[in-house]
Design brief:
Chain A has one domain: Orthogonal Bundle (ABC transporter involved in vitamin B12 uptake, BtuC), CATH 1.10.3470. Chain A is 76% helix and 0% strand. Chain A contains 13 helices and no strands. In chain A, helix 1 crosses helix 13, helix 4 packs antiparallel against helix 5 and helix 5 runs antiparallel to helix 10. The radius of gyration of chain A is 22 Å and the shape is globular. The radius of gyration of chain B is 24 Å and the shape is elongated. Chain B has eleven helices and twelve strands. Chain B is an alpha/beta fold. In chain B, the strands form two sheets. In chain B, strands 2-1-3-4-5-11 form a six-stranded parallel sheet, sandwiched between helices. Chain B has a six-stranded mixed sheet with strand order 7-6-8-9-10-12, sandwiched between helices. In chain B, helix 5 packs parallel to helix 6. Chain B has two domains: 131 residues, Response regulator (Rossmann fold); 159 residues, Response regulator (Rossmann fold, 3-Layer(aba) Sandwich). The longest helix of chain B is centred in the N-terminal third of the chain and has 25 residues. The chains are: A mainly alpha, B alpha/beta.
């Protein structure tokens, strides 16, 4: 009985997400038909683009690692009803501090990698925590502060690579020197880019599953239910907001560490790209559940990798992927709105009954 | 009967052989161009895109071109290069210095494939760098600006103080001073190629300061300078692509990059095998090799006195014939 109950529970959890993805793919197909193309051929090209050889399969994981880490971070803030939309900035601070540790600390390899990891986490955490503190102390809207801090991080990175951190032997190109070979994460397959950061991602995933069962995770979730609820439960709301934002930013910082040690090996402008916004969609599609986020991160990276290859080799524009992403956002928002609506109407009904 | 069959069989085999050799000779080089931005950006990407399309037409019997645009994310560059390399493309162009590390990494795995990097400094036996020698172009713009200035003040706005941009700026100053030794030249590096807002601010303060013509040496920042010129009703000089249509009343002329001759050189060298050599291989565009030209004045032609037009044309010819010698700016830095 408990097993079958569990299965029902899991299906109930996954079903809406599957429905949304199916809805997005179907509406996408309609748009492709309207544009005068064959949707089956397009989707086939997309899947081939993601899975037709070992390099591409490895790429789907390469992309999923930072996206999943950032989305896990975002989910901590979102469960607390704090809308951290600056994961890209927290990621950027993580990349900067990782490279700083690797280039300037001059320590032996193992301590360097560990310290780089800690610094990236703390840097991302402080960048997110600052927005949390502003929220707790001054009730500053976190949507605005995290977004602004995102810009500051981007410009800080640009300043560093055009200025003090520019590679002295790099002929003036806006990039830092590369980190030493021993500091790079070992590759897991020959010829591909998949690296040992995958294990870090898996470890974080397991930690996140445990985290939501811990007292702190529970407090964060409870505090997100509203001020009255948490005050009733004796939770210091302001402290929880700061802690949630620290952890939220810290995970994006780790994603930055991961990209430096596994992929880029140096700083360049705009390393975060559009990861910050995609990670939000991933967190919401995954229903803020650690496993759900892992699955939807992988789904999105399949879309991205497949979409890029599809565009390169068949000429079907990458915009198809943008459209599918956009449609998923629409469906996710619809679901959130619908949920809120149904909760409200539920309470309204109760009140009517009470009034009699 | 048997004999006839034999003869027929031999004929068949022969014809098959001929057919295969003919098709082998017919095989075109597969060329891929990966652009980091939009192909119609009126700047860095468009100059390369237009040139590649022109070469695709002229070399229609030799090459087959595929273009991918908007590869914005640095993390997506390596997979894009891998896509083409693993599909047996013969020449792959990565247009931008951010392609350098991934291009070298992929080139190591595909030593038979030719890779071309749009600005950079690392090379392998199967890779080359193509880049611009901007000092001649800058010199020409300096001459034009100095001749057109009524206030005796001209300006130049650049992105980053990178070697090529720096040489362009120095050429500009050198050219302007060759016409008018007393000219005042204001110079700003915004520090960022895409900071068009910063470039616009810089240009506006220059115009307010009495500067009446500005040349820009950048991509994104160029649009800011042209905006400022439009707002202030002053002249600006473009760079990279013919930017006339962006501000028809203000863009007097500009340096135009012509990548086509270099692309043809690269393709010829790949076919002849000269491309694959161990020495670092660089392809430069400059005025002497037709890689740099200047944009037409269009309807602003009547605003440019005939003797100025003649002098600019003469300067262009002299630069082309290498009659004008400039000092080594880099050494003097």
């Amino acid at each position: 009985m408990p097993v079958s109950k569990k299965i029902i529970k899991i299906t109930q959890a996954i079903f809406p997400a599957l429905l949304m993805v199916a809805g997005a793919l179907l509406s996408g197909a309609v748009l492709i038909v309207i544009a005068g193309n064959d949707p089956i051929a397009a989707y086939k090209a997309l899947l081939e683009g993601a899975f037709s050889n070992s390099y591409r399969i490895s790429e789907t994981f390469v992309k999923a690692i930072p996206l999943m880490l950032m989305a896990q971070g975002i989910s901590i803030a979102f469960k607390n009803q704090i809308w951290n939309i600056g994961a890209g900035g927290q990621f950027t601070i993580g990349t900067i501090l990782s490279v700083v540790v690797c280039l300037y600390f001059k320590l032996p390899p193992i301590p360097t990698i560990i310290l780089s990891f800690i610094f990236a986490f703390i840097g991302g955490a402080l960048w997110g925590g600052l927005a949390g503190w502003l929220k707790a102390r001054f009730n500053a809207n976190e949507v605005i502060t995290t977004l602004m801090l995102d810009y500051i991080a981007t410009f800080l990175l640009a300043y560093l690579v055009y200025g003090p951190m520019m590679d002295p032997n790099g002929f003036g190109y806006p990039q830092s020197a590369v980190i030493e070979k021993v500091l790079r994460l070992p590759k897991l397959i020959v010829g591909g880019r998949l690296h040992a950061g995958l294990f870090v991602a898996i470890a974080i995933l397991l930690l996140m599953i445990l985290f939501w069962r811990s007292t702190l995770g529970f407090k964060i979730e409870l505090a997100g239910q509203g001020n009255d609820v948490s005050r009733y439960a004796g939770i210091n709301n302001k402290k929880i907001i700061i802690v949630a934002m620290l952890l939220s930013g810290g995970l994006s910082g780790i994603a930055g560490w991961n990209e430096i040690h596994g992929i880029h090996f140096r700083l360049m402008t705009d390393l975060a790209g559009s990861y910050g916004s995609i990670a939000i969609v991933i967190a919401l599609l995954g229903n803020l559940n650690p496993l759900g986020i892992a699955i939807s991160a992988y789904f999105f990276s399949v879309l991205i990798v497949g979409g890029n290859t599809m565009q390169n080799l068949t000429g079907i524009p990458y915009s198809l992927v943008d459209i599918i992403q956009g449609l998923i956002v629409v469906f996710v928002i619809t679901r959130t709105a619908f949920k809120a609506e149904s909760i409200q109407s539920f309470f309204r009904k109760r009140r009517y009954q009470h009034n009699g | 009967m048997k004999k006839i069959v034999k003869v027929l069989f031999v004929l068949l085999v022969l014809s098959l052989l001929v057919a295969t050799t003919v098709s082998a000779a017919d095989e075109k080089l597969k060329v891929a161009l990966i652009l980091p931005g939009q192909a119609d950006d009126m700047s860095f990407n468009q100059a390369m895109y237009d040139a590649m399309m022109q070469v695709a037409d002229e070399y229609a019997d030799k090459i087959e071109v595929t273009v991918v645009e908007k590869v914005y994310e640095v993390a997506d560059i390596e997979p894009a290069l891998m896509d083409f390399a693993s599909q047996n493309y013969d020449i792959i162009f990565g247009h931008g210095f951010q392609f350098q590390e991934p291009l070298i990494a992929v080139a190591e795995m595909f030593p038979e494939t030719a890779f071309c990097l749009g600005t950079g400094y690392l090379t392998l036996p199967n890779t080359a760098v193509y880049d611009v020698e901007l000092d001649t172009g800058g010199y020409l713009m300096g001459v034009l600006a100095a001749l057109m200035s009524e206030t005796g003040k001209i300006g130049v706005v650049g992105g980053a103080d990178v070697s090529e941009i720096f040489r362009g700026h120095e050429g500009y100053k050198y050219g302007a001073k060759s016409v008018n030794p007393d000219i005042v030249i204001e110079e700003v590096y915004t520090g960022d190629w895409n900071d068009s807002a910063g470039a616009k601010e810089a240009a506006i303060s220059m115009y307010d300061d009495g500067v009446d013509i500005i040349w820009h040496s950048g991509d994104g920042i160029g649009l800011g300078v042209l905006e400022a010129a439009k707002e202030k009703g002053k002249f600006a000089l473009g760079n990279v692509a013919d930017q006339h249509s962006l501000a028809p009343d203000n863009v007097l002329s500009g340096v135009v990059y012509q990548w086509a001759p270099i692309i043809k050189n690269i393709i010829d060298d790949v076919i002849s095998g000269a491309f694959f050599k161990t020495d670092p291989l660089f392809y430069w565009i400059n005025i002497p090799n037709d890689g740099l030209t200047y944009a037409s004045y269009y309807e602003l032609s009547d605003k440019v006195p005939a003797e100025v037009q003649a002098q600019v044309e003469q300067t262009f010819k002299d630069l082309k014939d290498k009659k004008i010698v400039m000092p080594d700016f880099e050494a003097a830095k």
